[in-house]
Design a protein that fits this description.
Helix 2 crosses helix 7, helix 9 crosses helix 11 and helix 16 packs antiparallel against helix 17. Helices cover 59% and strands 7% of the residues.
Length: 708
């Protein structure tokens, strides 16, 4: 049953920092994977990239290769290697999905009533999130597990540093406790100090309560998971003692804007193909995406405590994209790390607009760039783990490399137009050397590159047409029209995202810390002025490229149009696709429908149905707390007063809050003068809050009695 206290008794376990340079170099315990699968994927990708690079060389080498052409060739080889890997992996994933190499699990295990031996906790790390949405999901998840054949608990791990949201979380937790079925265990902890962000949040939980549990399922603030999926994850952990982590492939759900619905459609159709390919070659050396996954707590604690990277942010400090590194360290220690594309019932909500995606991408980009240091410093990582890190790094470096490719290509054209070519070299020659390229070979290479680039979309279409669920819920015609619509929108938005990611990479390499901002879950309905201001770099670049292209020739401008049109229209596209009305219009036109939209998952429906219960929360203000001792007493069982300070350390915001009370004469002045972090420090320390109030009460009494 739910106890009066917000947290159970602590059951700590150690989670030491893992030394990057002194780790094991051989995985003696690691379950073996089939090496031939990795050889096939990366050999085919290298062969394809080598062929394309050689073809590009012959395109440029009609009359010798200049310095600029060598630069162009080098950039092309990097870009085509990335595309070739994606093509080969998705091709194998497509074949695996169609051939049923990952058959869908049955709705029930052979003995659905058999108790799960391990105790499982579902954790919800949150940071300044929408309180109604988060607590509705916690409630629906906990209720779905109330009769599960095992021991399941839910634990809200708050890192919220906004005092108003913190008070709303407390009110929501009290409301949640009154609504839960007796016997359902839900806990709440808000950290007093946000050390090391999300990874530190999880680590604080493990080092204080990790010994109480065997397995941990991690939710994001916008995650939803079906009851059967949660139970199946715990069963798989029970059945495989060598497994440290199982990652599901979450589908997107709940999108309303055109941008969100486009992403949702693409994830539903192409996700199974791409995920199956990744799981096929990675096998027991998969990856972790930070949420919608189950971890063995003892494995994570013993093998994946993350140290700080030496130096300052953005390259140093806490590792932002901690999940990739944790998976690599688990594998280094000999644990299975699996990706389960066949296990459905896993969902999340995507960003509603390009701007919101870009804000999130800045953090992800910085985290992936930090992986460069991890690759250089860490011994003992497997080849596959290193490839996961490299793929993550290149997913962001690809954008500036493509922009560099376009720029160098344009410089070559401008050079040929404005500089007088040297038709004859220093040695005697009978015929001139014409500075031209092999246009026919160039056209063939371009066609092959486009085929490789768009092949995953064709695979997704075939998969959708062959899938019984897609045929039943969406239908072949709507699936086909959805692919056409998604392709058109993605082609328009691809140059915009190229610029956004290039800016993100530039910010990291110029030393700008991307921070850790809460992610928008619902449409902010940005104005046109907002989008023009945000996308100014893309628009300016589009103008420069268009003018330069027309200076070369109208034909060249036409060839470049697929890139420049999106840049020129970046603000308008961002505004239009980020609106709910545009998404509703596409829905009325039967475009971009996915099975999750036609037949929403029960976990999502239950969460949405629970939201109204948390919309009328009456959270007290700080002024209310100062004036009402009963309100303060009600909080004592909720507030976590654990301060991770050394014996002689002082929490500066709390010390300043106490010092202000000595200088300001009235309570109103004091509350007005407090900074948000000082208010939060007082909320996190009920004893200090009472001491400040007692100080003002005593001062008022002295004035009233004339003793002062």
């Amino acid at each position: 049953m739910i106890t009066f206290r917000a947290r159970p008794a602590e059951y700590p376990i150690a989670m030491p920092d893992q030394a990057f340079k002194t780790g094991p170099t051989v995985n003696h315990r690691a379950p073996k994977s089939l090496m031939w699968r990795k050889v096939i994927v990366f050999s085919l990708a290298l062969v394809l990239a080598a062929w394309a690079t050689i073809e590009m060389y012959y395109v440029l080498n009609v009359s010798g290769v200049t310095v600029l052409e060598k630069v162009l060739l080098a950039v092309f080889s990097l870009n085509i290697s990335w595309i070739a890997y994606a093509f080969v992996s998705s091709t194998i994933g497509f074949l695996a999905a169609l051939a049923g190499l990952f058959p869908a699990p049955k709705s029930a295990t052979p003995d659905a009533t058999q108790m799960i031996a391990g105790r499982t906790v579902v954790v919800f790390p949150i940071y300044n999130e929408d309180v109604e949405r988060v607590f509705a999901t916690v409630e629906s998840t906990a209720e779905s597990l109330a009769t599960a054949p095992g021991r399941f608990e839910c634990f809200i791990l708050s890192d919220t540093n906004d005092p108003e949201i913190a008070l709303r979380e407390e009110a929501a937790f009290e409301r949640l406790r009154t609504r839960m079925t007796p016997g359902t265990l839900v806990h709440y902890r808000r950290r007093t100090m946000n050390l090391h962000r999300k990874a530190g949040n999880i680590r604080d939980f493990i080092t204080r309560w990790g010994g109480r549990y065997d397995y941990m399922i991690v939710f994001d603030a916008d995650s939803f998971m079906e009851r059967d999926t949660l139970i199946e994850l715990a069963r798989r952990m029970d059945a495989s003692p060598a497994t440290g982590l199982i990652q599901t492939i979450p589908q997107l759900v709940g999108g309303r804007t055109l941008f969100a619905r486009t992403q949702q459609f693409a994830a539903a159709l192409y996700g199974p193909v791409l995920g199956s390919g990744l799981a096929w070659w990675a096998q027991n050396e998969g990856n972790f995406w930070g949420h919608n996954a189950i971890l063995r707590i003892s494995a994570l604690a013993n093998a994946a405590g993350l140290p700080e990277i030496p130096g300052r942010a953005p390259f140093g400090g806490s590792i932002l994209s901690h999940d990739f590194v944790e998976a690599a360290l688990l594998r280094r220690a000999g644990w299975n790390v699996q990706i389960a594309p066949e296990l459905g019932g896993s969902y999340e909500q995507g960003p509603p607009s390009i701007i919101d995606l870009s804000i999130r991408d800045r953090r992800w980009c910085q985290g992936n760039m930090q992986h460069m240091a991890v690759l250089l410093k860490t011994r003992g990582l497997t080849f596959t783990s290193r490839m996961h890190l490299i793929i993550g790094i290149f997913s962001y470096l690809a954008s500036p490399l493509w922009l560099l490719f376009i720029t160098v290509g344009m410089l070559l054209s401008l050079q040929n137009m404005f500089l007088t070519p040297a038709y004859f070299g220093e040695t005697a020659a009978l015929f001139p050397s014409w500075p031209v390229i092999d246009s026919e070979r160039s056209l063939h290479l371009f066609t092959a590159t486009m085929a490789i680039l768009f092949a995953p979309k064709l695979y997704g279409l075939i998969y959708g047409l062959a899938s019984p669920r897609w045929r039943r819920t969406v239908g072949p015609v709507k699936t086909f029209m959805g692919v056409i619509t998604e392709t058109l929108i993605s082609v328009l938005l691809a140059p915009v995202m190229m610029v956004e990611q290039t800016v993100a990479v530039y910010r990291v390499f110029t030393g700008r810390d991307g921070g850790w901002n809460p992610q928008a879950r619902e449409s902010n309905e940005y104005t046109l002025s907002d989008t023009f201001r945000h996308h100014a770099p893309a628009i300016v670049l589009g103008v420069v490229l268009t003018v330069s292209a027309f200076a070369i020739s109208p034909i060249f401008a036409a060839w470049l149009a697929p890139a420049t049109i999106g840049m020129l229209l970046a603000a308008t596209l961002s505004w239009w696709t980020g609106r709910t009305k545009s998404g509703d219009f596409a829905l009325r036109m039967n475009l971009l429908e996915s099975p999750e939209e036609r037949d929403p998952p029960q976990s999502y429906l239950d969460s949405v149905a629970s939201r109204p219960a948390y919309q009328d929360l009456s959270a007290p203000s700080l002024a209310n707390l100062f004036s009402d001792r009963n309100l303060r007493n009600r909080r004592t069982h909720i507030v976590d007063t654990h301060w991770p300070l050394a014996h002689s350390e002082v929490h500066t915001p709390l010390a300043i809050a106490r010092a202000r009370a000595n200088r300001l004469s009235t309570l109103g002045e004091y509350i007005t003068a407090l900074e948000p972090k000082e208010k939060l420090a007082l909320l996190n320390s009920p004893g200090d809050l009472d001491a400040v109030i007692d100080q003002y009460d005593a001062r008022a009494l002295d004035y009233a009695t004339g003793t002062t």
